[in-house]
Fold:
Amino acid sequence: MLKIQDLHVKVGGIEVLKGINLEIEQGETFILFGPNGSGKTSLLMTLMGFSGYEIIQGRIYFKDRDITETPTYERARMGIGMSFQRPPTIHGLKTRDMVRLCAGDREVDVEELAEKVNLTNFLDRDINSGFSGGEIKRSEILQLMAQNPSLVLFDEPESGVDLENMALIGKTARAILDGPQEPDNSASLKELQSQYRTSGLIITHTGYILDYINADRGQVLYNGILCCTARPRDILDHISKFGYKECVRCLN
Amino acid sequence: MPKLDNAAGEPRVDLGKYNFERDELPELADLKELSAEDRSRLLMAGIDAGELQRSGTYLHINHSKAHCRSCRKDVEVMDTREALEKYDGLPEYYWQAVDKDKDEFTRAAAENIHGGYFIRTKKGARIKDPVQSCLFIKGENIGQNVHNIVVVEEDSELHIITGCTTSADISSAMHLGISEIYIKKGGKLTFTMVHNWGEEVMVRPRTVALVEENGVFASNYILLKKVRSVQSYPAVFLNGRGAVARFNSILVAPKGSHINSGNKIVLNAPETKGEIISRTITTGGTIIAPGIIEGNAVPAKGHLECKGLILSDGIIHAIPELKGTIAGVELSHEAAVGKIAQEEIEYLMARGMDEDQATSTIVRGFMNVDIMGLPDKLRKSIEKTIEETEKDMF
Ligand SMILES: Nc1ncnc2c1ncn2[C@@H]1O[C@H](COP(=O)(O)OP(=O)(O)OP(=O)(O)O)[C@@H](O)[C@H]1O
Ligand SMILES: [Mg+2]
Structure:
């Protein structure tokens, strides 16, 4: 699904990603840890193709296509969806219309989707205008549901979210990753589901999101370099016991 | 003070060029007698030829009244000339808010009045459907002088939609319009003006509103199409305790347009509130957007918000001014002139919109008319015009 090869990226003249290699399979959820300022957000922004993230070396492949030079909107149309940490307010653009725009040519029931994340009262408000931290998270998820991506990039789904809403976000994130159907035991449906399963790249500090989703694999981004491949739970345990420095040393 | 007279590059009006001679056209029994083309021009300016959901209509073509009627007993709609006759020269209202000797345009209007609308509510009347008026110019180099008087009596409520437009085949003309607005105690007026002129038209309105205790004046101004020159600076004086004024304008200046359009609010009584919001876009023309809020009493609050987008080389000159003359007034302003934030474009691109789609989505939001509280049909018609205007923007 996603393949990153030897990716070096400069932000504001400084190299913040120094040779990233990463592969995420269809339906796989990958968890990214790392201390503040290590380059996690920069990696997501680069994958989405934003200006200001200058690729000085390396390639990015998505669905077997080289997207290193592909403009952002085409990446989105190919199936990459991102949840923003601090999205801008767009005055005069109602949340309802934004959600519809996210769906592109597909028909979506905006009200029904909004109900799932408890945002029906927000549909007539300008997108992100005066939204609280937790409301932004839910609105980003709402947009992702409408967008229906095959790879979700999620930057700290739990930051600024209270416990109750964490459950809501966790469950919705899981629903997005699991694809559209309800779980069922018939083998053929399972097959079908794995075909529809969405891949994920999720950044977390606290690991709360791990209570809700099936995360297969994780790594730590440290100073622009990926290290310590392990099960996300184990990485989290190590970090909380020993801190990042020790964790990097012992897991390497 | 108003930067009207010395605005850089402002086209000068040569009044001698235009025909102000009165030629009375026959009255129309029904707006449907207008040609389909004229009706569609009217519609773009917010005027419904079927008079559906309207409490009254005043149509003025060139130099005279063409159609006028009220659908309700509690609102009078008539030609100002007739009102002057009927009410002994309207001594309380005629040239009482606007100074007759203010400039050459007010003097010209005083010398040779062509009519205009006189609209007055009954005390306590809540007039739900708007009264519509249209000042229409059909004929090359016609000069039009109108004098409008609006009286909103105590505790009454009124919405006026006024569309000013030229027929599709006219490019050059001159419109002079005096408007005097009186809002009595507890009265409420929403005044929505849509301008839709020909490309060489010169426009010189002069408007003053006086608001008494707890009165509300909400003014909306929409100008989306090319016009040679507009110079307009409506002023509202909040003279009674608790009076409120709001100006909302959306202005677009294509190449060749020179728009000098501002607002003035004077807070003359305690507990008054004033707000000026303007959204301006240039795609090659010039916009001068002065705005002043003056606070002379306490407590009083004023806020001025002036945002401009330069989409292609043009000029936006925002001149926000605040003047407080007493301790305790609260006046503030917020002004920004520039381009669309890259961050906003990229946000929408990450949702699958290409750069043009993202830009036009943001511009449409910028020109959003929701805050104006317009009737549904008018809002839709304006949104449609905005969409058409947008096609010429990029
Ligand atoms: N526009 C910019 N100009 C200059 N430096 C930048 C810019 N954006 C990010 N950086 C720097 O790049 C480095 C990586 O930032 P990034 O936001 O990717 O970190 P992060 O791993 O997401 O951190 P956090 O956990 O705090 O969110 C930081 O040192 C940051 O200051
Ligand atoms: Mg970050």
